[in-house]
Amino acid sequence: MKYLFDSSSIYTALKPETIRKLIGNYTLELARFEIGNIIWKERALHKRITEDEQETLMDLATSALKNMSILKIDGHENGILKLTSKINDSYYDSSYVYFANVMDVPLVTADNKLSKKIKGYVQVEIVENI
């Protein structure tokens, strides 16, 4: 089975025991930017990782993304925008939900708030369960 990973789940999977789950699965082009932002926040704002760990995580993320199918939102902007109102969430999150629905694949997310909003609209999974 194929899955669509959002940036939160990709970040969660950047561990030796789970990174292989990303290979051959889907994400969106915006994940690259969101993951960079997550890693930056972990270092600069939360002080949870060192500079060396930050670089290692970015290298792992870059490698993982090279082994995933990256989907572009071109041509789907209005569909995503309509969904933002329906699920009352950001355009970013709605884009993942939109593509999971259109492609009929489960959305893998570590975002509990998003998971609750979209249950029943798309199948939702967490990295640990796949």
* Sheet/helix structural class: mainly alpha
CATH architecture: 3-Layer(aba) Sandwich
* Name given to the CATH homologous superfamily: 5'-nuclease
Count every beta strand, where a strand is a DSSP E run of 2 or more residues: 5
Q: How many individual domains? A: 1
Taking the sheet with the most strands, its summary is: 3 strands, parallel
Q: What is the count of DSSP helices, taking H or I runs of 4+ residues?
A: 6
The oligomeric status of these chains comes to single chain
Mean pLDDT: 96
Helix content: 40-55%
Estimate what percentage of residues fall within beta strands: 5-15%
Instruction: Predict the CATH topology.
Output: Rossmann fold
Highlighted features:
130 residues, 5 strands, Rossmann fold, 6 helices, two-stranded parallel ribbon, three-stranded parallel sheet, mainly alpha
In short:
This protein has 130 residues and is mainly alpha-helical. The protein has six helices and five strands, in the order E-H-E-H-H-E-H-H-E-H-E. It has a three-stranded parallel beta sheet. Strands 2-3 form a two-stranded parallel sheet.
Description:
- This protein has six helices and five strands.
- The termini are close together.
- The chain has one domain (4-129): 3-Layer(aba) Sandwich (Rossmann fold).
- The protein has helices spanning 7-12, 31-45, 51-66, 77-87, 91-103, 112-118; strands at residues 4-5, 26-28, 69-71, 107-108, 124-125.
- The mean pLDDT is 96.
- 52% of the residues lie in helices and 9% in strands.
- The radius of gyration is 14 Å and the shape is globular.
- Strand 4, helix 6 and strand 5 (124-125) form a beta-alpha-beta unit.
- The chain has 130 residues and is mainly alpha-helical.
